[in-house]
């Protein structure tokens, strides 16, 4: 049975994970770093939280880099696409700039944004189309900030968002994201390999067009959405456990690498991943 995840046995393959509860992990940092190393993680997306100081982030980046793992600055809120909520977004950008300015060596290599406009209550009520221009404006604004800070831009998106059109740039919304970002995470949340493959494949052509990294997202936390008759949630590996997930992701890896060699993986989230049953 698989004990560790070794998807990135190919030297250039990305294997990332979201780390939301940073303050908790700082209290047991050795445990976190040991787990990341053991599972061959290459990048950690650390949430920028108010209960963690700038100096603590500098320390975290240094310790993470010392074990060969790079750190991205994670944040996001669906409301950020609305002009009246941009203050929190600007605060996030300012903090990343300030933290990186304090670093003497390794820094945050990327802005990692989890802004999902379809979650906005107004979008659920009226549809996503009227909010796409605001979303595109935020994407392009983040691109300009990333350029100014001389770091990458990454974005997490649902697999189906390519069906929506960015009329400003006369293309698919997913194409705009791949054009503006060095890496795009496809939230391919299914609990079996073929399901993840099927919902990822439509996005590969966009990654190829701009030679960008396509990251396959995998869910591990407990969810109560779209439950099957047996109570099993089809969009998370929570019920199936760690070994089963590792086996399925190995199948996904073999299938997708035949289509595109800049494919990687990310596990959501480190808290769910660490607590998965064997």
Kindly list the characteristics that best describe this protein.
278 residues, alpha/beta, TIM Barrel, 8-stranded parallel beta barrel, two-stranded antiparallel ribbon, 11 helices, 10 strands, globular
Compact summary:
With 278 residues, the chain is α/β, with parallel strands linked by helices. 41% of the residues lie in helices and 18% in strands.
Task: Provide the structure class.
Answer: alpha/beta
Shape annotation: globular
State the helical fraction.
40-55%
Low-confidence stretches: none
Number of domains: 1
Query: How does CATH name the architecture?
Result: Alpha-Beta Barrel
Q: Count all strands and give the number.
A: 10
CATH class: Alpha Beta
Pattern of helices and strands: EHHEHEHEHHEEEHEHHEHEH
Distance between the termini: 9 Å
Strand residues, percent: 15-25%
Description:
This protein has helices at residues 22-26, 29-38, 54-66, 86-102, 121-126, 132-149, 173-180, 193-200, 204-210, 242-257, 270-275, and strands at 15-19, 43-47, 70-75, 110-113, 152-158, 165-166, 171-172, 183-187, 213-219, 263-268. It has 278 residues and is an alpha/beta fold. The protein has a single domain (13-275), classed as TIM Barrel (Alpha-Beta Barrel), CATH 3.20.20. Strands 1-2-3-4-5-8-9-10 form an 8-stranded parallel β-barrel, surrounded by 5 helices. Strands 6-7 form a two-stranded antiparallel ribbon. Strand 6 and strand 7 (171-172) form a beta hairpin. The longest helix has 18 residues, at 132-149. It is globular. The mean pLDDT is 95.
């Amino acid at each position: 049975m698989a004990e560790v995840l070794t998807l990135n046995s190919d030297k250039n393959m990305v294997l990332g994970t979201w780390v939301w509860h940073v303050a908790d992990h700082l209290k047991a940092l050795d445990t976190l770093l040991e787990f990341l190393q053991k599972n061959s993680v290459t990048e950690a997306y650390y949430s920028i939280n108010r209960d963690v100081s700038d100096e603590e982030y500098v320390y975290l980046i240094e310790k993470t880099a010392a074990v060969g793992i790079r750190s991205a600055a994670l944040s996001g809120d669906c409301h950020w696409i609305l002009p009246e909520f941009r203050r929190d977004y600007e605060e996030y950008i300012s903090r990343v700039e300030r933290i990186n300015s304090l670093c003497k060596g390794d820094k945050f290599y990327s802005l990692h944004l989890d802004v999902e406009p379809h979650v906005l209550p107004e979008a659920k009520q009226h549809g996503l189309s009227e909010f796409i221009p605001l979303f595109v404006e935020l994407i392009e604004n983040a691109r300009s900030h990333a350029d100014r800070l001389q770091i990458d831009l990454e974005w997490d998106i649902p697999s189906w968002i390519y069906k929506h059109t960015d009329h400003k740039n006369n293309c698919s919304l997913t194409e705009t994201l791949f054009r503006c970002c060095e890496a795009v995470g496809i939230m391919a949340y299914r609990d079996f390999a073929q399901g993840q493959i099927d919902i990822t494949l439509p996005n590969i052509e966009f990654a190829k067009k701009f030679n960008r990294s396509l990251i396959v997202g995998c869910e591990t936390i407990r969810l109560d959405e779209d439950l099957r008759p047996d109570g099993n949630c089809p969009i998370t590996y929570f019920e199936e456990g760690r070994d089963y997930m590792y086996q399925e992701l190995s199948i996904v890896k073999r299938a997708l690498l035949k289509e595109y060699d800049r494919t990687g993986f990310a596990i959501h989230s480190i808290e769910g991943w660490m607590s998965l049953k064997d």
